[in-house]
Design goal:
The complex is a heterodimer of chains A (about 190) and B (about 525). Chain A is an alpha+beta fold. Chain A is built from 7 helices and 7 strands, in the order E-E-E-E-H-H-E-E-E-H-H-H-H-H. Helix content of chain A is about 35%, strand content about 25%. In chain A, helix 5 crosses helix 7 and helix 6 runs antiparallel to helix 7. Chain A is globular and about 55 Å long. Chain B is built from 22 helices and 23 strands. Chain B has a 12-stranded mixed sheet with strand order 9-8-23-22-21-10-20-19-11-18-14-15. Classes of the chains: A alpha+beta (about 190), B alpha/beta (about 525). Chains A and B meet through helix 6 and helix 7 of A and helix 2 of B.
Chain lengths: ~190, ~525
């Protein structure tokens, strides 16, 4: 965890490119004991560790991409992979709450991917969809919602029923905006 | 048992309540005319589905329809962005406090609050509203798609004049038979049926041509069949109780004025009847018809100031009556006395017309007999009021082709117009059967207590049947969508709310058994047992 606010947090991966997929559910411990904050991965980037210093194109004489890193192993240390997650809820004891936690996450807290069981428990309710739909991110909300639901459906035994239920919730939320609904539904399959 | 349909979203008492269907309920399973209950916060409401419609949350959906060939998309959209909606006309309420539970359902004066749950009415709801079969209530049919019995309170029904309407071939006759059986069993009234097509007394036939039994065969001890056409009755092997003959001397000027249209008489010709009656006395008809000496006629017409063409017109009209085979110079026995005799014994009288089922004969006889009977009933009721004795048994007179008697031009002249308007006071009411209700005088229509109507598709007929009914537009949709067989809409005095029924079965051996079985009065033993059970 390298940056945390009430609505989102940014975490850095220990290894380059070991990013969680877009829309996956991640968790981190909160400041309060027994509380875990859930986030949906909304954006990820691999950049230079020094802001403002861009890498130079390499590999003109190399046979493959791997060869670049083999010949200059320090390169791996000059880049970082980061992802930001949108806070969608928290867990206090056994209960999941699908709204923002009282306090943001801690810096240097560990961020984990949620297990399929945790995903199933969290996605019993679709209240988190409102948060996802209403954020302004680099990634369009339609893409994010669709990705999150696709991934969650894999944790459920009956993908189809889950997606239909989620679709119906979306249809209610987007009652006045059929075009957006259509674009999300089109991305759910 | 109760099936939730959806929730109330908007509405008004006048225009009906809008209900949005739940996503799991298919709009195709709904049907106008079905019963629903609405669970408000303080009361329950009973209503009828008056309209079914489709809605979308976003108009863009209708301009740019989604790809419904994708089952996922269509499944998601069903019940959310696209939904079914109902318009429910509320009719009755039932508050949950004890007082109103005892009072039973009350007419609706408000609407349920927002988002109240709407359920399909259960059997017990229907029973609560219409009551179950008992000594007063007669099972007439079942609501659409349900097994519950809809029962009519017959003593209440016969307190007013009633009407049965419907296009030809929609089951009016069957419905009438069922209703007559009901009255015969459960109302304290006796029936006089002017049976134009000889369908009610002895066997009639269904549309498929299979014979069906009629009243006399099912309830021989309670029904007397009179006939105008002895030969026809004998051929049909009907055991008749009396052959009706009408004497010339029984026909009075009022009877002729009623037949003005049918006999194609001019107004002057009808007027001319009265001086002739004064001149010749009781035998006026016979004498007028048999005038053939030109000098005599001329002298008579001059003295009575009747124009010759008027007289010819009259004579031609009277000739039509004279040619009716059952009209004889002197009737051997007074038909009115015999009819009243049977009615007094509590027997129902069916008068068959046999081959003489043209409208002139029907109107003449029905009107003539009814007027005499009316007079007697009136005398007796007045007598009963004067000395405090029992009033005569309530009488229900059944007439077919009622628009001929009750059209606006002659309704005020015929006895049936009078009965419909005021005879309730003298314990006589009408059962009007007609296929063209728009032809009936609006004043008479408005006096009909309970109306039972099968399918009607003429705008004017529908208007006239529904005139003055609350929630007319809702009922209009229901009425126009009735199936052409065995379905009827009943509304009015004898029922707490309008109901669409599938008429009870009539015509199979099993149905006859059910009709006659319920006719048996309950034994004293049974009654005691019931009372005991009640207190347990």
């Amino acid at each position: 965890m390298v940056e945390a606010s009430t609505t989102n947090f940014i975490a850095q991966c220990y290894e380059l490119y070991e990013l969680p997929p877009l829309g996956s559910l991640v968790k981190t411990a909160a400041n309060e004991a027994g509380m875990e904050i859930y986030g949906v991965v909304g954006n990820a980037a691999t950049t230079s560790i020094e802001p403002g210093r861009r890498p130079i194109a390499r590999g003109r004489d190399e046979a493959s991409e791997e060869a670049i890193f083999r010949s200059s192993p320090h390169l791996l240390k000059l880049f970082k992979s980061e992802f930001s997650a949108l806070v969608v809820g928290y867990r206090q004891g056994d209960r999941c709450y699908q709204y923002l936690p009282p306090q943001p996450a801690r810096i240097h807290g560990f961020v984990y991917r949620c297990t399929p069981e945790e995903v199933t428990t969290f996605s019993q309710s679709f209240d988190f969809l409102t948060i996802l739909l209403n954020t302004r991110l680099a990634v369009p909300a339609d893409e994010l919602v669709a990705a999150a639901l696709r991934l969650m459906s894999q944790a459920h035994q009956d993908h189809h029923t889950f997606l239909v239920a989620a679709g119906k919730e979306l249809a209610t939320l987007l009652g006045g905006d059929f075009d957006q609904l259509k674009s999300i539904l089109g991305r759910l399959k | 048992m109760t099936e939730r349909l959806g929730i109330v979203t908007s509405g008004s008492l006048d225009k009906g309540i809008e209900v949005r269907l739940d996503s799991g309920i298919s709009v195709e399973d709904m049907a106008v005319g079905r019963y629903v209950t609405i669970e408000g916060n303080k009361r329950r409401f009973f209503g009828i589905i008056a309209d079914v419609s489709l809605g979308v949350t976003d108009p863009a959906l209708t301009f740019n329809p989604p790809d419904v060939s994708d089952p996922f998309i269509s499944e998601v959209l069903a019940g959310t962005s696209t939904f079914g909606a109902l318009r429910v006309s509320p009719y009755l309420t039932l508050s949950s406090d004890v007082d109103s539970l005892l009072e039973g359902p009350q007419p609706v004066k408000t609407v349920p609050s927002h988002f109240s749950a709407v359920n399909l009415a259960s059997q017990s709801d229907i029973e609560l509203v219409f009551g179950s079969e008992d000594e007063r209530r007669f099972f007439i049919g079942t609501p659409l798609d349900m097994e519950t019995k809809i029962c009519l309170d017959l003593p209440e029904l016969v307190k007013r004049s009633n009407g049965i309407f419907g296009k030809s071939g929609t089951g009016k006759t069957f419905l009438t038979r069922i209703l007559l059986i009901g009255m015969l069993q459960k109302s304290a009234a006796v029936n006089l049926i002017f049976d134009m097509h000889s369908e009610y007394g002895w066997a009639g036939s269904s549309e498929k041509g299979t014979p069906v039994k009629a009243l006399k065969q099912l309830f021989a001890s309670k029904v007397a069949v009179f006939t105008l056409d002895e030969e026809n009755s004998r051929r049909r092997k009907v055991s008749t109780d009396f052959v009706v003959r009408i004497g010339y001397d029984e026909i009075e000027p009022e009877d002729i004025s009623l037949l003005r249209q049918t006999l194609n008489l001019t107004d002057l010709a009808v007027e001319a009847v009265y001086p002739l009656r004064r001149r010749f006395g009781k035998s006026w008809l016979h004498d007028t018809m048999n005038l053939d000496n030109p000098d005599e006629i001329k002298e008579l017409l001059e003295s009575l100031r009747i124009h010759e063409s008027t007289f010819q017109n009259l004579q031609r009209g009277l000739g039509t009556i004279g040619r009716l085979p059952f009209v004889v110079p002197h009737a051997p026995e007074n038909a009115v006395d015999r009819v009243l005799g049977f009615l007094d014994q509590g027997k129902n009288v069916v008068l068959e017309f046999g081959r003489y089922n043209d409208i002139a004969a029907y109107m003449l006889v029905a009107n003539l007999l009814s007027r005499r009977i009316y007079d007697r009933y009136r005398e007796r009721t007045e007598q009963a009021i004067a000395d405090g004795s029992a009033k005569p048994t309530p009488l229900v007179i059944t007439i077919e082709e009622a628009h001929k008697f009750l059209n606006p031009e002659i309704a005020s002249h015929t006895i049936f117009g009078t009965i419909a308007r005021e005879m309730r006071k003298y314990n006589v009411s009408l059962l009007v059967i007609d296929q063209r209700p728009s032809g009936i005088d609006a004043e008479v229509m408005s006096q009909l207590g309970t109306k039972i109507t099968c399918l009607l598709d003429n705008e004017r007929d529908i208007d006239s049947v529904l005139a003055g009914v609350a929630g007319k537009s809702a009922l209009r949709t229901v009425l126009a969508r009735l199936e052409s067989k065995q379905q009827a809409l009943i509304f009015g005095h004898a029922l707490p709310m309008p109901v669409v029924i599938k008429t009870r079965e009539y015509g199979s051996p099993e149905s006859y058994r059910q009709f006659t079985a319920t006719a048996e009065p309950r034994s004293q033993e049974q009654i005691e047992k019931d009372i005991e059970e009640l207190w347990q």
